[in-house]
Amino acid sequence: MSRAKGNLAEDKACEFLFDNGFNIIDRNFYSRFGEIDIIAIKDEVLHFIEVKSGDDYEKAIQNITKSKLAKLIKTGEVYLKKNSYNGDFEYDAVLVVNNNISILENITI
């Protein structure tokens, strides 16, 4: 996927999250382990969010690989430590398929 398509999907995801009560606090947080597309907070829970898009739901969800999830978790740990965050947090995915957007909360390996 091109960077432009990825940015468009992330923009749509941010709008969706905002409309659903999330407060976006960071985008494209990098560590040596990888990147977190969106970091948001809702109801005092920090959400590390991976955005995936595709031509259909199955293709989008298949892009969340075990390796990608491991990198997301490691990068989340860096963020928590860097910001001395001790509250609740979870790892989520937002799937953008055309104009249909859905969130998968608390994804795990």
Structural commentary:
It is built from 3 helices and 5 strands, in the order αβββααββ. The protein is an alpha+beta fold. It has one domain: Trna Endonuclease, Chain: A, domain 1. It has a 5-stranded mixed beta sheet. The longest helix is centred in the N-terminal third of the chain and has 17 residues. It is globular, with a radius of gyration of 13 Å.
Topology:
Layout: H1 3-19, E1 23-31, E2 34-42, E3 45-53, H2 57-62, H3 66-82, E4 88-97, E5 100-104
Parallel strand pairs: 3-4
Antiparallel strand pairs: 1-2, 2-3, 4-5
| Low-confidence sequence ranges | none
Distance between the first and last residues' Cα: 24 Å
Number of domains: 1
Average pLDDT taken over every residue: 92
Main beta sheet strand tally, sense and closure: 5 strands, mixed
Strand content: 35-45%
Record field, number of beta strands: 5
What fraction, in percent, of the residue positions are helical?
25-40%
Shape: globular
CATH class: Alpha Beta
User: Strands of the largest sheet, in order across it?
Assistant: 1-2-3-4-5
The CATH architecture is 3-Layer(aba) Sandwich
Q: In terms of structural class, how would the helical and strand content be classed?
A: alpha+beta
The CATH topology is given as Trna Endonuclease, Chain: A, domain 1
The run of helices and strands is HEEEHHEE
Given the structure, what is the number of helices? 3
Question: Could you tell me the radius of gyration in angstroms?
Answer: 13 Å
Brief characterization of the structure:
By secondary structure, the chain is α+β, with helices and mostly antiparallel strands.
